[in-house]
Amino acid sequence: MSKYQFAESDIYLTGTDIPKNRLGIEAPDLLHEVEATLLQQAYTRFITELEPSVRFDENYFKALHRDTYETLYEWAGLYRTVDMSKGGSLFCRAPYLEQEASRIFRILDVMDMQQELLARSMGEGHRIVRGVAGSGKTLILAFRAEQIARAASRPVLLLLSFANGISGRLENVMQDRGVEDKVVTSTFHAWCYKMLRTYGLPIPTEKEIPDFTERQAANVQAVLDAAESGLIPGGQYDAVLIGEAHDMCSRR
């Protein structure tokens, strides 16, 4: 079932709330799966195109939407022409979409510059960047990692995150910007496992700790204990950048 409701819209297949699509899909679960896959591809493309020469304006995102969904929907890349709501809340009225989009992208132009300036002006020492979802924390992390890596003469930067998806995208960004040889990109738990293996320390097995989450937590604690005792040497990195730190704290 669709999460969205359209006023006087003919985008749905007759008698259903499934949007008409070029693949002829009529099963909602399958359609959602296809949409999710396409969205993930769009997100990966966006992350890999984070370059100073790319202008992320209204035309860019309309083209991204078109390229992402044109195999599925004939209206990909176009503004909707009908009003739309979700859970009883009305989205921006269709006649005002282009006007509001232009206003928002003017704001985003300023935000991108501010994020890069923030990353470049943080100075040394510990820094915590707080913000709501979608506020650009990962973008700041990428800008900062690139800045430190370009100034380094050897691989000195550890770039950690919680989720595999974010870690993979950050790794792609570092490669695209030509600094991957100076940045170690990993998820936090994969890095902990690597430390235990690298320094020949016992790694909890599935037989010892059947629960996967508990086993991950045991790996983390083993790394903390080994670092405290000197079995894992300190000073391996000149800088450590961590994304999604709130997830690591709550799920360790």
Description:
By secondary structure, the protein is mostly helical. It has helices spanning 28-48, 58-69, 97-120, 137-151, 164-176, 188-198, 212-229, 245-251, and strands at residues 4-6, 84-86, 89-90, 157-161, 183-187, 239-242. A three-stranded antiparallel β-sheet has the order 1-2-3, with no helix packed on it. A three-stranded parallel β-sheet has the order 5-4-6. The longest helix has 24 residues, at 97-120. The model has no long low-confidence stretch (mean pLDDT 81).
Would you spell out the secondary-structure blueprint of this structure?
Layout: E1 4-6, H1 28-48, H2 58-69, E2 84-86, E3 89-90, H3 97-120, H4 137-151, E4 157-161, H5 164-176, E5 183-187, H6 188-198, H7 212-229, E6 239-242, H8 245-251
Parallel strand pairs: 4-5, 4-6
Antiparallel strand pairs: 1-2, 2-3
Question: Would you kindly provide a brief summary of this structure?
Answer:
This protein is mainly alpha-helical. Helices cover 48% and strands 9% of the residues.
Average pLDDT score: 81
Q: What is the N-to-C order of secondary-structure elements (H for helix, E for strand)? A: EHHEEHHEHEHHEH
Give the N-terminus to C-terminus distance in angstroms. Answer: 36 Å
Low confidence ranges: none
- Biggest beta-sheet profile: 3 strands, antiparallel
Helical amount: 40-55%
